[in-house]
Amino acid sequence: MIDLPQSPARLVAPSILSADFARLGAEIQAVEAGGADWIHVDVMDGRFVPNITIGPPVVRSIRKVTRLPLDVHLMIEQPEQHIAEFVEAGADIVTIHAEACLHLNRIIAQIHQAGARAGVSVNPATGVEVLRWLAADLDLILVMSVNPGFGGQRFLPHTLQKLEELGTLLDSLGHRPLIEVDGGVGPDNAAALYQRKVDVLVAGNAVFRSSDYASVIRRLHHPTGQ
Ligand code: DX5
Ligand code: ZN
Asked: pLDDT tens digits, residue range 183-205?
């Protein structure tokens, strides 16, 4: 199981959903050279979300071209049926959706038993309360700032208030999993996210649709004025 930094941290996880899939290895090596901390892998099943993306064979191939942790975001129903396969393929962090699982504690334990770090994600309309009885067992909480399914969507502003509620909840519990935000993140809202104790920024379009990956990753690590 990989070591994770303590919160507060500032990690940047480019989402390969916005990369050129025909040149995926080169794209991943370019963001690694540009200072990325993790590689964020979006797995979609056409059921939990409207889109379909990639599965374990692609994770296995990616594993060979980078030493960075693979942060695998499962936007799929019944993730418990696929966790072992993703971890065997090379996933270091496996994040499931609260909305997709009936027995979250059991599935978190399953991820740990498989040898990976465990995260739980909440959609924009899901409150933070669902995390109360999970937080002690989690390595990561992923707050979606768009409705999952596609890259390039607009950041939903209520996410900022939700992050404040999450901070209050975690303080009251005395637990500090890493907090990650995903969707519509870029250099313009990174400072507001760090102010709300976010540790990991996922960025798809902001990185891969730019002409200078390293410059965007640098600005995500150090937004203006920070
Ligand atoms: C959305 C995915 C995100 C997405 C982020 O469903 O989970 O990881 O790729 O892309 P941007 O940064 O373009 O919103
Ligand atoms: Zn994602």
From this structure: 999 999 999 999 999 999 999 99
pLDDT given at position 139? 98
pTM of the model as a whole: 0.98
pLDDT for residue 124: 98
- Which residues make Cβ contacts (< 8 Å) with residue 76, sequence separation at least 6? 43, 44, 45, 47, 48, 82, 100
Q: Is the CB of 184 under 6 A from ligand 1?
A: yes
Q: Give me 33's structure tokens.
A: 């050279």
Q: How far is the CA of 110 from the centre of ligand 1 (A)?
A: 26
Q: How far is CA 63 from CA 25, 58, 142, 148, in A?
A: 10, 9, 22, 24
Secondary structure of residue 210 in the 3-state scheme: coil
Whether the predicted pLDDT of 225 surpasses 70:
no
User: Among 200, 224, 225, which Cα is nearest to 9's?
Assistant: 200
Work out the percent of the chain whose per-residue pLDDT is above 70. Answer: 99
Q: Can you tell me which residue has the tokens 């502003």?
A: 157
Distance 175 CA to ligand 2 centre (A): 23
Nearest to 95 by CA among 54, 142, 55, 157: 142
